[in-house]
Amino acid sequence: MKPFVLLATRAEDQPADEEYALFLRYTGLTEDELIRVRLEAGPMPALLLEDLSGIFVGGGPFNASDPAERKSTVQHRVEAEFAALLRDVVHRDFPFLGACYGVGTVGTYLGALIDRTHSEPISVVPVTLTDEGAADPLLAGLPHTFGAFVGHKEAITTLPPTATLLASSPTCPVQMFRVRRNVYATQFHPELDVDGITTRIHAYAEHGYFAADELDLTLAAVRSAAVSHPSRILRTFVERYAR
Q1: Domain holding 235: CATH number?
Q2: For the chain, how many structural domains are there in total?
Q3: For position 207, what pLDDT does the model report?
Q4: Kindly report the CA angle at 185 between 182 and 186, in degrees rounded to 5?
Q5: How confident is the model at residue 201 (pLDDT cuts 50, 70, 90)?
């Protein structure tokens, strides 16, 4: 089997390592089958799509909607690298699944309106499939509405007609979309479980996702409902595209 690649941007080792472990667990891939590239540590290597089965993107600290002058040199580099990669990915309709930061990268490439109108605190939200989502093979077997972990400062407000809306939540209209047939992005985190999001809550407690006195409330929010369905998306992606 040709390997998959996980493009990651987390600078903190513990949540970065746990993110990789979660992708391994829920995709069912081995470390040889899922190659991790930490983009915050260095430039994106040349990715020959013909040598890969597919590409995953994890979450991260970058906000596409931040003013250019507030973005770090690393963020500017990563954004330019994703723009170049996505030109090839979308043109070839290559299997791609971006989780959370996938919305920022693919959304920016499409020219979607990304701002802070539909940000969501770290929590569990009900995600509901559109008719197109219910018919999409990547989402086969998922219930019409399911709980998912979220936590994001920005989101897509206006999705261009070149994309197909697959899922929404009450406070965020674009939770998942598809470009062409094989390029996907989610706002929610399909890779997370309770332990994983607990690690991130502690790691990013001072990153503006919640107030300093809201740590316990935030931990309680992610334990408020069972989350079991989104991770199936990762396994289905591998089953569809492994070659």
Answers
A1: 3.40.50.880
A2: 1
A3: 75
A4: 135
A5: confident
Joined tokens for residue 25: 């667990």
pTM for the structure as a whole: 0.95
Predicted local confidence at residue 127, as pLDDT: 98
DSSP 144-194: SEEEEEEEES-EEEE--TTEEEEEEETTEEEEEEEETTTEEEESS-TT--H
Domain extent, residue 33, equals 4-241
Cα–Cα distance for residue pair 200/203, rounded to 1 Å = 5
Other beta carbons less than 10 A from residue 115's beta carbon:
16
State whether the Cα torsion 21-39-10-65 is positive or negative: negative
Show contacts of 102-105: CB within 8 Å, 24+ apart.
102/57, 102/184, 102/185, 102/186, 103/152, 103/155, 103/156, 103/174, 103/185, 103/186, 103/187, 104/62, 104/63, 104/64, 104/154, 105/57, 105/64, 105/79, 105/185
- Per-residue pLDDT, averaged over 105-126, amounts to 95
- Distances 37 to 22, 34, 53, 154 between C-alpha atoms, Å: 15, 10, 15, 24
Distance in angstroms (rounded) separating the CA atoms of residues 131 and 153: 27
Q: Is the torsion defined by CA of 226, 239, 178, 37 positive or negative?
A: positive
Please say whether the beta carbons of 27 and 192 come within 8 A.
Answer: no
Question: Are 61 and 78 contacting, i.e. CB atoms less than 8 angstroms apart?
Answer: no
Q: What are phi and psi of 113, to 5 degrees?
A: -80, 115
The pLDDT confidence band at residue 61, using thresholds 50, 70 and 90, is confident
SS3 state of residue 232: helix
